[in-house]
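Troubleshooting: if your tokenizer reports a length mismatch, compare against these two reference records.
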Amino acid sequence: MRRAILDAARVLFIKAGYGNVPIRRISSHIGYSAAALYRYFPTKDDIFNALAEEGLQLLKSRETKTSCPLGTPPLERLRYVIWGVYDFAKLYPEYFYLLYLDRSTPGLKLESLRAYTSSMRPHVREILDDCVKAGELKRGLDPWSVYNVIWTSMQGVASQYVCDRLPPVNPDDYARVMTDLVIAGLKGGALHRVRVFEEDCARLSAPKSRSSARTRR
């Protein structure tokens, strides 16, 4: 039942927009009463938050891709992280849209973001440290600033892909060019000793909530 609710909600949110889908429409879509649905999710925001947690796990799975062969140079491992943003949008466009493009959704829960960032921070830090040891990057890179700049750089092409707004080029080739540009900027010292974000800045990665009220529509 829980899975059916989330799958139906994801489809309806994408089709009509989160703000335009009352909870009764979700229950009707799966053939249950709204009362039955409320036993699993007291509010529509709770449904979104469950989908958001799934989306963040899927995103992390692309950024920490385990298919990277043993012995891969650290700079190539960093490339997997950069490419993972676009790869997530390509493989899971509905989740990408709900998390980052639908402005009618509530803000992401801080706990969910912290759970995500607590695993990504050490992953990025380890790769950057290995890049420095291998002589591929200079010391003085703040891991979390690097990661957020990576995200901002790749989110544009990812959003264009999801919204079908890319120029008439092969989208994978376009994403590779963007990845190469990010790598070139890091090698050129663009973020050397630059600290854009504080260490505990999960809130900065979340879309601003349009309302603090939890809705039970």
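Reference record two:
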Amino acid sequence: MTEGGARATAGGAMAPIDTGTGPVVVLVHGQPGAGGDWAALADLLAADHRVLAPDRPGWGSDARGAMGIAANAETLEELLEAAGVDGPVTVVGHSLGGGIALALALKHPQRVGALVLVGSVGVAESLSGFDRLLAVPLLGNGILRAMVATLRRVLIAATRFAEGHPGARVANIVPTLPTVQAAIGTDGRPIVGRSRQSFLVEQRALLAETPELERGLCRIAVPTAVVSGASDHVVPVSAARSLAVRVPGAELVVIEGGHLLPFDEPQKIAEVVRRYSALASGLRDGRQQRGTPGA
């Protein structure tokens, strides 16, 4: 196990995170993405938790092909077994990673002690018309190429903003995120090859598997926080509210910000994770009934 934070490879890319000691927290990234997307949150939690943030199949250092939500949950269970993790853990999932966290809780309920779902999928309301277009063969591929090319142009334009302009902050921070690095090559060309294929595979799985995932939400039996950015336009607050209503006893937490809360507000996410990790520890020690904080 690596102590003191995320590891960096010789090329500067973030390697899978395994840091700290204490109750285990697992961080599941979205798409496109990498385990290193969680570096800021992992650093905050590592003082009193063991934090695992793997690259999922199809992304980062995981050479396996991309797969669906349920299959991702199985690989996560295998990773926890290989890492020597016993008992229930707190699972934090962002966006599509939230769907994987839910699937893990449904397929391996003994493994999950608490859930923190950030900008998470899981209900039909979280899927937009754009999501459905991206899942269409050929059409989705063309849309993705155009979307990432546009993102690159926007980032280039943002570098011309004055230092105090909000756009300058975006230009400085966004290109350093592993998520964006997964979408835009170091030579500036739009997403190609493996990364694009991984995105499209997961997008199609998202549409195909969401109905079954939603039907299972009533069986989630662990403390659950549904965290939403007040200005999230990818998975809006209305979708988060719908998810919280369907998960028994779930708490809806709305934070100022958009869809990228793990990057923008790691301190606030860490506060929620610590509350729910304490609940998971209580369940593990047999001292506490299942439920949300204050319930």
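Descriptive notes for reference record two:
- Residues 193-216 form the longest helix (24 residues).
- Residues 17-125+211-285 form a domain with the Rossmann fold fold (CATH 3.40.50.1820).
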